[in-house]
Prior knowledge:
Elements: E1 12-16, H1 20-32, E2 35-39, H2 43-53, E3 56-57, H3 61-67, E4 70-73, H4 80-89, E5 94-97, H5 104-117, E6 121-124, H6 131-141, E7 148-156, H7 169-172, H8 174-191, E8 194-202, E9 213-220, E10 225-231, E11 240-247, E12 250-255, H9 285-297, H10 307-326, E13 330-331
Parallel strand pairs: 1-2, 1-4, 2-3, 4-5, 5-6, 7-10
Antiparallel strand pairs: 7-11, 8-9, 8-13, 9-10, 11-12
Bound molecules: nicotinamide-adenine-dinucleotide.
Organism: Tenggerimyces flavus
Protein name: Gfo/Idh/MocA family protein
Pfam family, one: GFO_IDH_MocA
Amino acid sequence: MGEGQQGDPVRRVGVIGLGFIGRVHLAGLRNIGVEVHAYDVLPDLRTRAVEEYGATEHTSLESILGAVDVVDICTPTDTHAEIAFAAAAVGKPVISEKPLARTNDQAEQIVRTFREAGLPLHVAQVVRFFPEYAAAQRTIAAGKIGRTSVVRLTREGGVPKWSTWLTNATRSGGLILDVMIHDIDYARWIAGDVVRVWAKQFRPTGDDQVLSHAYAILTHVDGAISHITASWAREGAGFRTSFEIAGSEGLLSYATDEHVPVRFAPPELAVSGSGLPPITLDEDPYTTELREFLPAIAGGPTPRVTAEDGAAAVAISLAAIESSETGRAVELPVPDQPYLGSAPALETAS
Ligand SMILES: NC(=O)c1ccc[n+]([C@@H]2O[C@H](COP(=O)([O-])OP(=O)(O)OC[C@H]3O[C@@H](n4cnc5c(N)ncnc54)[C@H](O)[C@@H]3O)[C@@H](O)[C@H]2O)c1
């Protein structure tokens, strides 16, 4: 399916992994109105997907891969690669939850495999679809704050308790690869490719990440810097995110705990599942991202986040983990044609 050629719309999507985020994807796909198929290794979750989301149940990977037009990977991070390769082997486009993969080798190989096969691959870096974050990016792209110079991003909550693999750093990559990656991707989107990372992490490894907390400084290719904080040390105080983006001509700031325009009671009304950032009355961003990916798979416009962006976010996150372990900054290679961020290029003197 060539990009730019409008093909048949996607009819059947198979969600693999029906836990916390898999159910959010099921809800989004139902909102869009496509036929939903579901597979998880746990039979109870398959039954729930049938009863709550009207999904067609599959009891094996092979069965769901054979029944759908698009595969939506919502399993633990260290299983993304094997499922993506299985989908590619039978010619199925993939939407993958972030992080695209657990390692750089896997992420690069996934991107290469799909590119060489001409198969669409989309990575659900959902922060780009949150209305306030998307609006800030549009403002920057319109040149309204000038050149992006200093970016401060935070994402803080309690320790995730719904699944034990999340706090097992070997499987999830821990706080940086699981949580900070959201803001790493956003920082790169607005401020450009990252050439250096320094990071510090409290309680980085092992199976007991209670009160894990991480801080990273990214140096972007044009010298802008991003300060990013991610935390599982905000137990009992709710989940919050914030941004402060300083440009040469203005500043944009936002914090979920200061600006919640609509309060939902019970909170689950806002989006299925607690522990996600609060949202406005706009469409929830998990539906919006799927609404952008599915037409792209059918040959429509390229979405705001690409597979390469997903792999870049993994590379920067893993560099941050390395820095936190060694205490030294990690340099990242500068691409031949670096991505300079969302702001319009500065006019050069002729
Ligand atoms: N975008 C976001 O805001 C967001 C939020 C949470 C999680 N995530 C990402 O989504 C992924 C899943 O996280 P989660 O919190 O939903 O985890 P989870 O543990 O709640 O759900 C994962 C599900 O996958 C199933 N599973 C495991 N291995 C499988 C396999 N080989 N085949 C089929 N099913 C399998 C498990 O039984 C479980 O039900 C992770 O990569 C995570 O980083 C993204």
